[in-house]
């Protein structure tokens, strides 16, 4: 019985050490921000990928994982035809754009029934 306790304790300790060493424990902060506070390069990207679009809302997510900080902006953009799309712009800590994604605004998908 005592040997099983030590083996279990050892396995848990190794698992925790592995998680800590790989940086799997990431720090993440998410906040709504006013559209007026968006960085200029983020607004410029929206103008390119959604010409004539209007930014309705913005959420900034700051994530630090394995010592690297990534800033992601999730934007709801109304296109001239009235369709609302989601634009995600990912920046590095220095503010350089790393990735841009445009997709349908999927807030309505949560309400769909899977019959």
Write up what this structure looks like.
With 115 residues, the chain is of the alpha+beta class. It has a single domain (26-111), classed as Nuclear Transport Factor 2, Chain: A, CATH 3.10.450. It is built from two helices and five strands. The chain has helices at 2-22, 40-49; strands at residues 27-33, 54-65, 68-78, 84-92, 97-104. It has a five-stranded antiparallel β-sheet with strand order 1-2-3-4-5, with helices on one face. The longest helix has 21 residues, at 2-22. It is elongated, with a radius of gyration of 21 Å. Mean pLDDT is 80; it is low at 109-115.
Give the domain tally.
1
Helical stretch tally: 2
Main-sheet strand order equals: 1-2-3-4-5
What portion of the residues fall into strands of 2 or more residues? Answer: 35-45%
What general outline do the C-alpha atoms trace? elongated
Alpha-beta content class: alpha+beta
CATH fold name, please? Nuclear Transport Factor 2, Chain: A
Q: What's the mean pLDDT score?
A: 80
| Major sheet characteristics | 5 strands, antiparallel
């Amino acid at each position: 019985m005592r040997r099983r306790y030590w083996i279990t304790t050892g396995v848990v300790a190794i698992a925790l050490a592995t998680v800590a060493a790989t940086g799997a424990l990431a720090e993440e902060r998410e906040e709504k921000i006013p559209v007026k506070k968006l960085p200029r390069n983020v607004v410029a990207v929206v103008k390119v990928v959604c010409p004539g679009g209007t930014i309705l809302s913005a959420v900034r997510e700051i994530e630090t994982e394995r010592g690297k900080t990534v800033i992601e902006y999730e934007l709801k953009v109304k296109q001239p035809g009235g369709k609302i799309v989601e634009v995600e712009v990912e920046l590095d800590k220095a503010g350089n754009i790393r990735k841009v994604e445009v997709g349908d605004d999927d807030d309505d998908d949560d309400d769909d029934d899977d019959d």
